[in-house]
Structure formats: C-alpha cells, structure tokens
C-alpha cells in the first residue's frame, strides 16, 4: 500500500510539472518566441513535431478567438486547444443556449464569415464518427456544430 501511495504522489508531481512546462511553452509562444526555438528548448520532454503542431493549434485558437471578438461573437462560441497530446487541434463549439438565441440557426454562417476574414474555416474534429458514404460539406459541419459537437478550426485553403 505504501508503494502505491508513493507512486501516486510521484505521478501527481510529474503531471503537475508537465502541465507547468506546457503552460510556459504556450505563454512564451504568445510572447513572441518562435515555435522552433521552443521545440529545441524542450526536446528532452517532447518531440519537435509534437511542440510545433501544438503551437500551430495555439496560433489557430488565438486567431479564431480574435476574429470572433471582432465580429461580436466572442460570447456565442468557445474556442479551445485539445492539448499537446494527439490530436493537437484548435476547436470551436457554440456556447449559447438554442432556446435563448433567436438566430441560433444562423450562428454557423456568422462564425464562418468572422473566421474567413482571418483565413480560417471549420472542419470535422479528428475521429468524428461518420458513415463511409457521408458527404462532408460545410452544411454537414454546420449541423454538427448546431448539435453541440466541437469542430476543428483550420486554415482556409484558397480557391484555385
């Protein structure tokens, strides 16, 4: 029983330290340190790709948050980052009650318009269950969003 208690204590300490390192990485990135420099600094703890992908999600999150605030949609949608462990995504979900929001069905379009100005768009979250024959369109993603599921924030690809 004593060994289990010691293991639990060490595990708690490890997870707390890991969280503190991730918070520091995020803060330094937001303060202007490059993703490459941060990845090199924490190479003993995390792989380069892991850090770069995580910070890419942080950048998408921050851009989307700013775009939503500019469009006066900051209270209508929540944004988050899944974390440094896979899938390392920036996500968005609707944060208002459908019963209390008269234009609830219009929110996905308004959100997309706000994100478009920052060259961002929405996609299904990795691992979202779909039929193999499902057509993944903007309308389908909007339905997922209106159903209360989080969706991914991604860079928009220019039309060719």
Description of the molecule:
This protein has 5 helices and 4 strands; from the N terminus they run H-H-H-E-E-H-E-H-E. A 4-stranded antiparallel beta sheet has the order 1-2-4-3, with helices on one face. The longest helix has 29 residues, at 2-30. It is an alpha+beta fold. Helix 2 packs across helix 3 (48-70).
In a few lines, what is going on in this structure?
By secondary structure, the chain is α+β, with helices and mostly antiparallel strands. It has helices at residues 2-30, 35-41, 48-70, 107-116, 138-146, and strands spanning 77-81, 90-94, 120-124, 151-155. The model has no long low-confidence stretch (mean pLDDT 93).
Provide the descriptors you would attach to this structure in a database record.
single chain, 160 residues, 5 helices, 49% helix, globular
Number of helices: 5
The unreliable regions are none
User: What level of helicity do the residues show?
Assistant: 40-55%
If you average the pLDDT, what whole number results? 93
SSE string: HHHEEHEHE
Q: Into which percentage range does the β-strand content fall?
A: 5-15%
**Strand segment count:** 4
Taking the alpha carbons of the first and last residues, their distance comes to 64 Å
The strands making up the biggest β-sheet line up spatially as: 1-2-4-3
Classify the secondary structure makeup into a structural class: alpha+beta
Sum up the overall morphology in one term. globular
The largest sheet, given as strand count, sense and whether it forms a barrel, is: 4 strands, antiparallel
Rg over C-alpha atoms, rounded to the nearest angstrom = 19 Å
């Amino acid at each position: 029983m004593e060994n289990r208690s010691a293991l639990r204590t060490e595990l708690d300490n490890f997870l707390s330290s890991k969280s503190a390192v991730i918070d520091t990485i995020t803060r330094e990135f937001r303060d202007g340190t490059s993703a490459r420099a941060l990845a090199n600094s924490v190479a003993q703890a995390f792989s380069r790709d892991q850090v770069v992908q995580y910070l890419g999600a942080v950048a998408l999150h921050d851009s989307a948050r700013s775009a939503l605030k500019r469009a006066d949609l900051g209270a209508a949608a929540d944004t988050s980052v899944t974390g440094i462990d896979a899938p390392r995504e920036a996500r968005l979900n609707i944060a208002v009650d459908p019963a209390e929001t008269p234009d609830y069905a219009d929110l996905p379009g308004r959100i997309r318009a706000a994100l478009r100005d920052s060259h961002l768009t929405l996609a299904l979250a990795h691992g979202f269950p779909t039929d193999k024959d499902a057509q993944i369109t903007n309308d389908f993603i909007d339905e997922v969003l209106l159903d209360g599921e989080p969706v991914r924030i991604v860079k928009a690809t220019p039309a060719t």
